Every structure is written in structure tokens, then in C-alpha cells.
Request: fold
Amino acid sequence: MARSFGRVEMNKSEAIAAEIVKLINSSSVADKLPSEVEFARMFKTTPVTTAKALNLLKDRGVITRIPGRGSFVNRDVASPVRVLLADPVIWQAGIVDEIRAILKVRFPHREIILEAHPPTAGVWPPYKGYDIFSSTATFPCSYQQHVSPLPIGILGKYLDGDYFECAFEVQRDHNLLYGLPFFISPMTLVYNKDLLRKIGMDTVPHDYTLDDFMRLLELAVRAGMAAVEKYFALSIVRYLVFSSAGGEGDLDLLELRQRLQSLRQIRKKSDDGGKSFEAGEILFTGCTRQRLIQLKAVDFAWDVLPLPDILGKRIPMAGCFLMVSSETPDRALAEEIVEAFLSRDIQWLVARERIGLPVLKSLVPETLNMRCWSDNIFLEELSCCLTDNASNQRQILRLTEAMRHYIEGKDDFGWFMENVVVMVEEEKQARLLASSPRPEWQEALCV
Reply:
């Protein structure tokens, strides 16, 4: 029976070829490989099938086959695997060399070129030339064109309670998984305590509503201070729009319109584009777990808050996700390397440096209750995360662009609301489909 890799069917010889590559990479076989007959016994198949598998590896340059002598691992010809870690927090944390060392131990006979820098400017797609690349929660390109879907069976290894299951939902689209999580972080609020005291408030409740939050922003504007950071306004808009499509207790569009108008006016009055939260000039900003690193050296008091409650909350998920390029010549090897980032030794680096929440649950408690990190709030927000980013990919990108045009005065509010109405309806339809029973053929693939 063929193994399904998303929309691509992997036949038996391809599956065996993938298993042989695993044996090579783990040094479980010598440079001279077992014969076709020996492999046939090992995999309980026929020599004809194993011969096809070996020929596939020969065509890919992984092995050399010499008549009368056998098959040999082609150490010299095998091309290096190029990996791009594009999230700046990774190289700022100084863990790139440690990741290289771990991968070298795990894959001693393959050259892995690990790079850590932003994607090359002017190149599209931005990950062109790499076998594996990292992305944020919202992928800016077409999955179908640029990303190889991961084996459906791969989820079975991680949905057993040891890993945060919600992290594996972020890069899924139409039941296909396009990216494995490296580290994750829900969106939270961070506020400047010193500025808050200036408007006459010493504490902020952790259970405040969105209306409470809007009133705080208005107080800040009246006091002549910047209330909310510009880029975070986009995150709040996304939060408002997708929360409003939440089912029972939905916001009506009139109320959503009023809140969006209020947020725009507050942002317009309070942030001239030249201020920054790190400089102590803005009251509120949105924050992911990795951004807290940048706040360690500021000279004002700050704290982390959950996002204000709205319809049970649906909070944007941030983080780093690893994807396999659709152009990689050795997909099986690339998939193994991506999985290595979920191993305990690499996940421990995430926990140690606090660049995000490690996906491996057992490592998270070791980072709890540390001064200025407030991991408990990030953990609380995980249960509310908006994880269906992939299915909403087009809507999210369109919403962000529409909001940017609106804030910059390129389009009027009516046009923006037309886009919002369409996206709310599309989101509702997507949820109805997601809640419907899956066809029998899809259930069979997930077993």
C-alpha cells in the first residue's frame, strides 16, 4: 500500500529508499550497502522492489552502483543540505553553533550548511536556494508552490501529550502539514508601569475586557502620551476581526466598526511613528515571548499582561516554524533534519535562552517564575491561540495590507470595512467546514 505524503503518493520503492537514507544518515550501514536480496529480507519485500529503491538513490546522487561489486554510499557527490534560520532572535541568542554541533552528531555523513540571517533582499521567493527554511506563523508565500507537505504520519509522533499540540495546527492547510514548530509564543500585552502611573493608575487588572483596554488608551491620549505601538495596532485589528467570527456571542459588525474606528483614532493621535516602546515612550505594545529579550535592558518598569478578554479570546500565535522546500532533491533527509529541531537537545536551547516557549512541554517548567519573563501568562494564553493560520493565510495577509492602507490614508474606512465583512464571513465558513465530520478517506489517512 502506498504511503501518503500529502498530495504526493509515495510507492513502496520510494518508501524503502527513504528508509535506506535514514540508515545511511544514522551510520547504521557501512559505505558498501547490503545487497538487493539482503535489503529485501530486511524490509520484507522482493529484490525487484529494493533494486528500484537503490536506483532511485543512484539517480539522486546518494549512492553509486557498480555492476558486479554492489552499491556504495556516495559521500563525495551528495550535495550539502542548506538550512536558513531567518528569525533574528535565533542568532541574537548565540545558539547557532550549538545547533550546528548537534546536527553534525546526528548526521555525521552529510554536510549541513546552517545559515542564520534574514532572507536575501530582492529574491523571490525569499527562501530560494535553501532545502529547509524557517518562517513565522503567517507564511508569506504559496504553500503549494514553495513548500513540500510533510508526511501525515509525522503528527503521530508528537500528538501524545509530550508536545504542545496547538503548535502543530499553525501551518496546516486542507489537512496537510507544511511546517514543524521550532518554538512558539502567543501574543500578549506589555505595558510601561511608569507611564501608567502618570495617568493615575498603579495597577492593571489581569482580567480586564477590551472596553477596559480602550478606556486606558483614551486616558493615555488625553495625557498626551503615545498609547499603543503602531505595528501592534495591526495585531489588535486581526485579533478583533477574527474574534468577531467566533460563533455564539459574536460581535455584530456595527460594534466591530466602532471598535476599529476607536482604535484607529487612538493610534493616529498617540503614535507619530517616531516613538518606541523600548525607549519608554509608549504605554502598550504587543509582545511575543522572544521579544522580551529586547526588554531586559530598558530603564523603566514593565510587566506582561494577557490580551483583554473578548468572546473567550482567539489570540494570534507567533513563533518559528521549519519548512522543507518543494525543490529539495532529498526530501526524506530534509524531513529528518527538520524533526531534529524537535529533539530534546535542541529544544533545551530554546528553553535555556528563553527565545520562545519550547514545543516540548517538559522543558517549559524549567523557565517558569523567572523575574521579568512571566512565562505563566504565555502558557495561559496558549489555550486561546488562533492556530488555523494556514487556512486563514490569504485573509490574514489581505487584512494586514488593508489595515495598513487605511491607517496610512490610502483607502477610506468604508472600503476597509468591506474587506473585513468578507473576511469575517469567510472565517465563519471555514470554521463550519472544520467542525464538519471528515470524509472516511481523510480519517483513514490520519490513522
About this structure: The chain has a mean pLDDT of 79. Residues 81-186+317-373 form a domain with the D-Maltodextrin-Binding Protein; domain 2 fold (CATH 3.40.190.10). DSSP finds 16 helices and 17 strands in the chain. The radius of gyration is 25 Å.
